[in-house]
Amino acid sequence: MDIIEILKAVLFGIVEGITEWLPISSTGHMILLDEFIKLNVSEEFMEMFLVVIQLGAILAVVVLYFKRLWPFSLKEKYFIKKDTFSMWFKILVACIPAAVVGILFDEKLNELFYNYETVSVALIVFGILFIVIERQNRGMKIKINSVAEITYPVALWIGAFQLIAAVFPGTSRSGATILGAIMIGVSRTVAAEFTFFLAVPVMLGASLLKIVKFGFSFTQMELVLLLVGMVVAFLVSIAVIKLLLGYIRKHDFTVFGWYRIILGVVVLAYFWAQG
């Protein structure tokens, strides 16, 4: 076993677990990290690894919100929890835009946009938008105060915001969906929770798509690296989700907007200096 490679996988898992839920773009950070710290693996495996490692982050949501996500109950009068099923149908509706684009254009999007230039520009542009939108929305009347109040049209709108992040790495899926939901009157906490739930089918589908394309023939080292990355991402995600929910009850995303702008500028400057 190559300990150095395992430690690299641990670092990727930490970055994934932190950035998946904060509005600073996990995909963008993973692409940038790959520019500086290279795993000694094939290009095909690395492309799959950067997506499938997200399964660890998904499991964190499932564990933390299991009672709200599981639609069956042996303790209640009715075996099927209708409210939970209704929520899942809305989540699936919100997944439609990203799912269609992902299935049809996944390889083309990777070819065009998965590079440090696109990530850096997206970090800066959407960092500015985060700040502007947060300032404009201060004092905005909240129309939706629970996940159950989200309607199918609202769910589809949130899915449309998610599509932006699916196309442009560096945007942030969680940031785009949370801010998009806030813009249409969803409370900050509800927007975050719906975004967490929405991540489950989205990331699961994206991961399965990558695994199928890669094939199921892993070397022992590849399997170890993937499992290590996923486990670390799971453990870090548990802590980050709890911290984020506590933070957004009292603060907005302005600080993350400034972080994105600074990071994008630093990355562009670094690669321009190297070129």
Kindly describe this structure.
The protein has 275 residues and is mainly alpha-helical. Helix content is 77%, strand content 0%. It has helices at residues 3-19, 26-36, 43-52, 54-64, 66-69, 82-113, 116-137, 152-167, 173-183, 188-214, 220-248, 254-274. Helix 4 packs across helix 11 and helix 7 packs parallel to helix 9 (173-183). The model has no long low-confidence stretch (mean pLDDT 87).
Nutshell version of this structure?
The protein has 275 residues and is an all-alpha fold. It is built from 12 helices and no strands.
Reported for the largest beta sheet, the result is: none
The proportion of residues in beta strands is under 5%
* Alpha-carbon Rg, integer: 19 Å
Topology, number of strands = 0
Helix content: over 70%
Shape: globular
Average pLDDT, rounded to a whole number, is 87
Number of domains: 1
Secondary structure topology:
Elements: H1 3-19, H2 26-36, H3 43-52, H4 54-64, H5 66-69, H6 82-113, H7 116-137, H8 152-167, H9 173-183, H10 188-214, H11 220-248, H12 254-274
Helix pairs in contact: 1-2, 1-11, 2-7, 3-10, 4-10, 4-11, 6-8, 6-10, 7-9, 7-12, 8-9, 9-10
